[in-house]
Write a structure and sequence with these properties.
The chain is of the alpha+beta class. Helix content is about 30%, strand content about 25%. The relative contact order is 0.15.
């Protein structure tokens, strides 16, 4: 009989779905994410996830940057400005930094709040406020009176440490736009697992740049934003049950050290973008 080329024919032989379910890890079939996480060796708490950064990606924005963390965190940021403020005739003063944070509908796995719902809008507003708090000390707003700078961050994939990656990407985007800055703002996230003992006396160590699964099961979270060249902390964001004040102080020191280690990668990214712009 003649073939129907408009249809995509299936395979001649079929296999039952049970064949691909719950295979052992060493059999090559992949036993599931939960098995991989439970069978993985404990990682070094002070280890940083490999970071990829690139500036100057978007032609429609005056400045842009993309930051990706190994494990599935991807953030794209764009920056515009300085633009004239919307309220003419106001008092002469420093400029304004406006930040926007959005989560892509496909950024996370599993159940998520209804797109455009009240819970998601509130979470995005809180993330935008945290982003502005971390970036404002790095920007010379006094150089732009009666002007506004706009930064927009889009979370493409949430694999953990999303706010810290957004801080670094937004800072790169502002620098790529030619905005005068005191220094780059580098973000680094930490989390602490819940106590393992029944009495709650023993808590796990703080983990640098946690993944999504580690953040989900954590008892405390912390995001540190640092101006490395000035050695000044621009923002400390987080909360939870982190233990004694000494534990929070140790986490802050660990976060500052992580930002210092990430700073050369971001600075080299800006240098590469400048060379590409000069060579174009």
């Amino acid at each position: 009989m003649p073939l129907d080329h408009r249809r995509l024919h299936g395979p001649e032989d079929s296999r039952p779905p049970e064949l691909w379910a719950a295979q052992p890890r060493d059999g090559g079939g992949g036993g599931g994410e939960e098995d991989e996480e439970s069978g993985a060796a404990p990682r070094d708490p002070c280890a940083l996830r490999p970071l990829f950064a690139r500036a100057g990606l978007l032609s429609q924005a005056e400045g842009s940057a993309y930051v990706e963390l190994s494990g599935g965190t991807k953030v794209l940021c764009a920056a515009w400005g300085p633009r004239e403020a919307a309220e003419p005739g106001g008092a002469v003063g420093a400029g304004r930094l406006l930040c926007d944070f959005r989560r892509a509908p496909f950024c996370a796995r599993g159940a998520r709040p209804r797109p455009g719902g009240a819970a998601e809008r509130e979470a995005e507003r809180e993330a935008a406020a945290a982003l502005r708090e971390a970036l404002e000390p790095a920007v010379r707003l006094s150089r732009y009176p009666r002007a506004r700078l706009v930064v927009s961050a889009l979370l493409l994939q949430d694999g953990g440490s999303a706010l810290a990656a957004a801080v670094s990407a937004a800072s790169l985007a502002l620098a790529d736009a030619g905005v005068e800055m005191y220094d780059l703002a580098v973000g680094c996230a930490l989390c602490r697992p819940p106590p393992g003992d029944r009495d709650g006396s023993a808590a796990g160590p703080w983990l640098l740049q946690p993944g999504e699964a580690e953040e989900r099961g954590s008892a405390a979270r912390l995001t540190v934003a640092l101006l490395p060249a000035l050695n000044q902390v621009s923002a400390v964001l987080g909360g939870g049950r982190g233990g004694e004040p000494e534990g929070w102080a140790a986490a802050l020191r660990l976060g500052v050290e992580g930002c210092q280690r990430l700073y050369p990668v971001l600075r080299h990214c800006l240098l590469r973008a400048a060379r590409r712009r000069d060579g174009a």
